[in-house]
Amino acid sequence: MSGDFHSIPVIDISGVYASNSKPRASFDTEIFEACCDVGFFLVVGQPEAARLTQQRLKTFATFFDLPERDKLALGRRQNNPESTNIYRGYFPPLPEERSFKEGIDFGPELPSDSPRFKSGEMLLEPNVWPPEERLPGWRRGILDYLESMRALGQDIMQSIARSLNLTDDWFERSFDAGNNTLRLLKYPPPPKAPPQLLRVDVDQASCYAVAYPHSDSGCLTLLAQDDVGGLQVENGQGNWIDVPVIDGSHVVNIGDVLARWTNDLFTATRHRVLSSGRIRYSMPFFFDPNMDALIKCIPGCEGEQGPQYPVFRYGDLLLEKLSGYTEFHTLFEDGTLSVPSIKC
User: Fold this and answer.
1) Is residue 16 scored above 90 in pLDDT?
2) Tally of domains within the chain
3) Is this prediction's pTM over 0.85?
4) Could you tell me if residue 299 is inside a domain?
5) What CATH number is given to the structural domain containing 237?
6) Tens-place pLDDT, residues 111-132
7) Is residue 108 part of a domain?
């Protein structure tokens, strides 16, 4: 359960790259306290390759200027019957969904003959890309950023490991074949009086939550956002706290997997996005374990009552979460996906 916080910590992580251990230890402590008390924090001081400035985000967002037919050609099977993908690709705003957004998802970029594809690994699919002549250099920019985010996620997880008195590389065996997701999102202004969206009263005015209150299902989320804002985090008293916008920063939050891994020492905090009536762009990166990674209480996190959760496979928890999303309902109904028999 998140605590009685009234602001989101901002942490300079440049110390993690220092040659001596003192700045790194200070950073590890700040990260640990934020994970326990808030479940959210902002990082600044990242390597230059990982900084997504407002201008760089706007360049990536030019994807949404493509004609609708070109975007739908990159759609998942749910929106494009000719596609074999169900997890990677473009998705339009869904009028019946409780979140109002469009976006495109990317995963690991692997050669077509990769043994991982041949193994039938769950939800591992090839990325789909707009033609190079339509968006010159766009694909390369996305891939470079995706790799920088994977490295940043690994750096933060190493800090978390140290803060839990584990070796730097303790988590790495659970992430060596991860199926991370980089998502480019556009939140259009919602249609007038949309019945499926949550109406929220803020400062004596009404607006809509274009991302419904939720916690993330994975391990660690690293979000870059534009200057429109609207992201809010719920504290332990049920109050919603604004997440500040700092150009080039990343908003980091704990997901359900890491909360359970630490036996709820860390907090997977609910959050939402409110619409200001302006278009909002963001890019979350979901740094998640291997699909077959077994999640078992971390040594030292057992507490007086012992582990609260059974050992589970990350992929099973993900399927359980996906079954609750409107965009995946038909895939569970037709048997393409199935909810695990053991509840995580």
Assistant:
1) no
2) 1
3) yes
4) no
5) 2.60.120.330
6) 999 999 989 899 999 999 999 9
7) yes
